Amino acid sequence: RGSLEGVHDTVHLLLGGNGQMSYPDYTGFDPIFFLHHANVDRLLALWEWCYTEYWMESGYEHDGEQYPWTQARGTYAQVYDEQLLPDGPLQPFRTEQGDYWTSSQARFLHEQGYPKCFSNLLSIG
Questions:
Q1: Under a CB-based contact definition with an 8 Å cutoff, are residues 81 and 21 in contact?
Q2: Does the pLDDT at position 122 exceed 70?
Q3: Distance of alpha carbon 44 from alpha carbon 4, whole angstroms
Q4: Angle made by CA atoms 27, 114, 123, in degrees to the nearest 5
Q5: What is the pLDDT of residues 2-24, one digit of tens each?
Q6: How far apart are CA 43 and CA 82, in angstroms?
Q7: Strand partners, 100
Q8: Distance CA 91, CA 13 (A)
Q9: How far is CA 36 from CA 24, 88, 121, in A?
Q10: Beta-bridge partners for 83
Q11: Is pLDDT larger for residue 118 or for residue 23?
């Protein structure tokens, strides 16, 4: 199964080697981390903008079989392979009201939501 997360993890391992990028507890201290994650965010934002009809929902279908979206390795707040849902909490990130953000709330699909170059490409193409 292909995913942006898989490519993301591979970059951490390839660039990390024996350095900080390959160890989650220290990766944020590596300057490459910020460049890498800015690019991951850019790619996801562009994908969301281009493919608005594809969103998390309950999963995806492949060869007639339904697969849920999961967090393979878990997080400090989720167990391994727990299903990810559009309205599940994105811990530890909180809104101004103190609730956890959800994936649905983190989508900004409107003309001002992404850089002008993405919007201009869509109007041209």
A1: no
A2: no
A3: 8
A4: 140
A5: 567 778 888 888 887 777 888 87
A6: 24
A7: 94
A8: 24
A9: 14, 25, 23
A10: 70
A11: 23
Nearest to 105 by CA among 86, 92, 84: 86
Alpha-helix residue ranges (DSSP H) falling in the chain:
4-16, 31-50, 116-124
Q: Rounded to an integer, what distance in angstroms lies between the CA atom of residue 74 and that of residue 118?
A: 32
Q: What is the mean pLDDT of residues 107-123?
A: 54
- Model pLDDT for residues 63-107, shown as the tens digit of each residue: 999 888 887 777 777 788 888 888 888 888 888 899 998 888 877
The pLDDT, as a whole number, for residue 112 is: 53
Phi, psi (5° rounding) for residue 92?
Answer: -100, 20
Considering Cα of 91, then 33, then 20, then 69, what sign does the dihedral take?
Answer: positive
**Looking at per-residue confidence, does 33 or 48 come out higher?**
33
Beta strand pairing call for 82-83 and 89-94: unpaired
For residue 59, give Cα distances in angstroms to 26, 79, 104: 32, 18, 14
Alpha-carbon span 94 to 106, nearest angstrom: 11
